[in-house]
Amino acid sequence: MFSKPTSVTYISNGFHSTGKDKHFGVDFAENGINAIRASADGTVTRSYYSASYGECIMILHQISGQEYETVYAHLKSGSRKVKVGDSVKKGQVIGIMGSTGDSTGQHLHFELHVGRWNVLKSNAVNPLPYFETDTKATTSNNKEYIVKAGDTLYQISRKYNTTIKVLSA
CB of 95 within 8 A of CB of 75? Predict the structure, then answer.
């Protein structure tokens, strides 16, 4: 239903909504110039600088009667290409990955909210299961893999060019 907001595959920090180190999004990290794209058609609700999010864009989406809001944070200074009220198309470049605001290195902090974003982030969900699957990857030949201590579904999915959804089925 949503496309990944970047071609970067490395996730430096995953979603965790419990515990002392809560993180209500997914951080895609890689050096270089990495385009950030709208994950779905929508309307820009915020395009601003925040002390915590840095250069930030929020987009409201209406999909199958459900409202979603996506957050794209820590963009490169001066790279935001959209303003409040703009309509965006899925895949449209909206900025460049950066390290602005409360950030310790270049990455995209991406959040998905079922409903509208709020300061408590009570509508935040793990975005990974919402990303569209690559049909080529899901129909590839079956392979067997023995899981080792420390393996993650994400690492295995990247290694074998498949998706977490396929591995979990």
Answer: yes
Other C-beta atoms closer than 10 Å to the C-beta of 107 total 25
Percentage of the chain exceeding pLDDT 90: 73
CB-based contact 35:6 (threshold 8 Å): yes
Burial 27-61 (b: 16+ CB within 10 A, else e): bbbbeeebbbbbbbebebbbbeeeeebbbbbbbbb
Angle, CA of 98, 57 and 127, to the nearest 5°: 85
d(CA 57, CA 71): 6
In sequence order, what are the residues at sequence separation of 6 or more whose Cβ sits closer than 8 angstroms to the Cβ of residue 106?
Answer: 29, 30, 31, 74, 97, 98, 99
**Is 41 in contact with 88 (CB distance < 8 Å)?**
yes
pLDDT tens, position by position, 10-59: 999 999 998 888 999 999 999 999 999 999 999 999 999 999 999 999 99
What residues have CB less than 8 Å from 144, skipping those under 6 apart? none
In eight-state DSSP terms, residue 76 is: P
Q: Walk me through the domains of the chain, giving residue ranges and CATH numbers.
A: 11-131 (2.70.70.10), 133-169 (no CATH)
Query: Measured between alpha carbons, how far is 117 from 67 in angstroms, rounded to an integer?
Result: 10
Q: What residues pair up with 110 in beta bridges, in sequence order?
A: 26, 72
Tokens of 151: 């393996």
